[in-house]
Design goal:
The chain contains two helices and eight strands. By secondary structure, it is mostly beta strands. The strands form two sheets. The protein has a six-stranded antiparallel β-barrel. A two-stranded antiparallel ribbon has the order 1-2. 13% of the residues lie in helices and 45% in strands. The protein has one domain: Beta Barrel (Thrombin, subunit H), CATH 2.40.10.
């Protein structure tokens, strides 16, 4: 079967349908690799403390397994079970029903960024 052809407006050259349309699948927005990591997480949601479990982490985000996930765009504070706990500001970017949420993360405390990077560095060396 032959690919569809069209003339590109800017150059007048031929372009096939394979080059005219991006490949299927969601765009990759991650700038840093995620690493397997298993730790408890307390989520401060209003006056409630929800429990979650981190299964992947990077310097920019993490995947949190939880029974009743929050919705895309929900922002919350969390404490990652390190010694001492690491305070994070999280925003839900993706929901996987029945599994959990993908979030972006930013550290809250000034020394938090270096602690998070040290954790990621230790995971990358494994």
């Amino acid at each position: 079967m032959e690919a569809a052809r069209s003339i590109t407006p800017s150059t007048g050259g031929l372009m096939t349908s394979e080059s005219a349309f991006p490949s299927p699948g969601p765009p990759q927005r991650r700038h840093q690799p995620r690493y397997p990591y298993h730790a408890a997480l307390d989520i401060e949601w209003g006056s409630a403390i929800l429990k979650g479990h981190v299964s992947e982490i990077s310097g920019e985000g993490m995947f949190i397994e939880m029974e009743q996930p929050l919705w895309v765009g929900a922002a919350f504070q969390a404490r990652l079970a390190l010694n001492p706990p690491l305070a994070l500001h999280c925003v839900v970017r993706r929901v996987e029903p029945g599994r959990g949420i993908g979030t972006s993360v930013h550290t809250v405390e000034p020394e938090g960024a270096s602690r998070l990077q040290a954790l990621i560095h230790s995971l990358a060396r494994r």
